[in-house]
Amino acid sequence: MKILTEKNLKTFLKSAEADYNVRVPINLHDGTRALGKIDEGSLAIAGGVIPQKITNVFFPQMETILTIDSEKVELPKPSVKPLLVIGFTAQDADCLEFIDRFYSEDYRDDIYFNKRDGAVIVCVSGRCGNDGEFLKIAGEKCDLELICDGQNYLLAAYTDAGKALAENADGANADDSVIQQLQKESDSLPADDLELIQAASKLLLEEKVPEEFWATISDRCIACTSCNLVCPTCTCFDIFDRKTDSKVQRWRMWDSCQLDGFMREASGHNPMGKENIRTRRRIHHKLAADVTRWGQLTCMLCGRCDDVCPTGIGIKAVCREMVDKYGSA
Ligand code: SF4
Ligand code: SF4
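A: This is the predicted complex of the input protein with iron/sulfur cluster.
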């Protein structure tokens, strides 16, 4: 395994641009971090979870899904170069694994896989989280991994695509004892949050959470939709048509289950017309309905909704309150 300085890392990523559309965490002018092209800002690999929904590289907020003119119907074509995306955490890799399932089982979504097929996923882990937090090592959930030892990055390659890329990296060989120590730190990270959402999931599946609970939580929701917009496993979208010159384009755009119009039908009937029902859905969907539908929790604890919710009712906060109130019922 090679060890790369930040300078070597930048050179390595630049060289990957010959074969890939490279997206890296960069610093924006307002001081926040986001995915961008290498030359669009200074590299910001360290710093923990990237605030934006990282799966948006494959499922963007808005995109054309077909174009119709008088002669033909055209579908979007795959881009010439596949994506190489740096900045996934181990939890983000779990989120991606789920939405790969979502977009491929029963019906394969070609628009999604136009971008996803051939893409190289690079996780970032180790001693480079926000405020010194240790980020869990993802291992074989990704193609390549940058594991920070506090200063430099160990480059771990897991798949053929990852190994082919790693061969081009310039760096010294890492000491085995450093790798073992980092793995030990990763393995000893607490699992409290997972236990918390598992306990909340059990309460929901056993129907032990009364409607009054959702009323008290939804009273604190201002329907800003941020929780949905940042969540890497939120997959709901709306469809609309736009006429431009002689063409009609069909677009899809992220939707939010926290909005009144989310399920409103043309007749005016709205099965989710009350705030408490919508708030319940946001949590119940990921911790109970998806357990039944997909056989797994679909919150991977990336932390984004708790970070972004202006009123403090991200999923972990709600689960904590739920388990405190009904956990012994
Ligand atoms: S922590 Fe929140 S944003 Fe992240 S996967 Fe879970 S529900 Fe989605
Ligand atoms: S981020 Fe918080 S306030 Fe905004 S819609 Fe989600 S739960 Fe409501």
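The two ends are 51 Å apart (CA to CA). Residues 2-187 form one domain.
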